[in-house]
Every structure is written in C-alpha cells, then in structure tokens.
C-alpha cells in the first residue's frame, strides 16, 4: 500500500503507479507491467523489490567514471573507497579490501546490537526508577 502512496509512475505505462522496481532493468513498474515483462524464463530471474525498497543510486569512482564504488580499502590515505579498477590495477592494488555491502551488513548488525543494549538499559533504568520512587 505504501508503494502506491509514493506515486511513482510506471516506466512502461505512465498512467499506472509503480509498485515494483527491477534492480536489473533499473525500472519502476506497476504489477501488471512487471508481470508481463518478467514472465519469460530469463527475465523472471530479475530481482524485483517494492519501490519503497529501491536501492539508492550508486556513487561512481572519481577516477574511473564508468565504475561504481564497491570496495573499502584498509589504508591510511584519505580516500578509502574504490572501484574494481582501483582495487585491481590502481593505487590500492596491493592493499587489503572488503566489499562495501559486507561492511554495511556488519555495521547494521552492530547498530542492532547497540540498540538492543540501549533498550535493555532503558528498561533497567525504568525498573530502578520505579523502585526508587516507591
């Protein structure tokens, strides 16, 4: 329902409201157009997500404009983000690196754990406050 409320027009039929985003085609589609264009054996393997979960646009490498930044490098230089060419052939070819998606997943997990700890702390604090005020 919230995808319809976004009001993004379907790329195939602008009279319709998009509810899906195909990450391979990079297009917004209503349910009907998504089903019609992605029923074949090959296109049915495309990843379609609700438009509300559409990935943010990727940042392009400042040195190789055709390549997206996908890696983080462990080095002391200011620019720690790099594309595939920087990693394999450029200034960071001999440095340790990791995929940004992996790093982001690790950070999300640490934030979840910190939030859980914080909620537990607040719960303990509320219980202590109740005991003190009685």
From TrEMBL:
SMART domains on file: BBOX
One Gene Ontology MF term: zinc ion binding
The keyword Zinc-finger is annotated on this UniProt entry: yes
Gene3D superfamilies per UniProt: Classic Zinc Finger
Organism lineage string: Eukaryota, Metazoa, Ecdysozoa, Nematoda, Chromadorea
Protein name: B box-type domain-containing protein
Pfam families in the record: zf-B_box (PF00643)
Record domain B box-type: where: 10-51
Boundaries of every C2H2-type domain copy: 28-55
Keyword terms: Metal-binding, Zinc, Zinc-finger
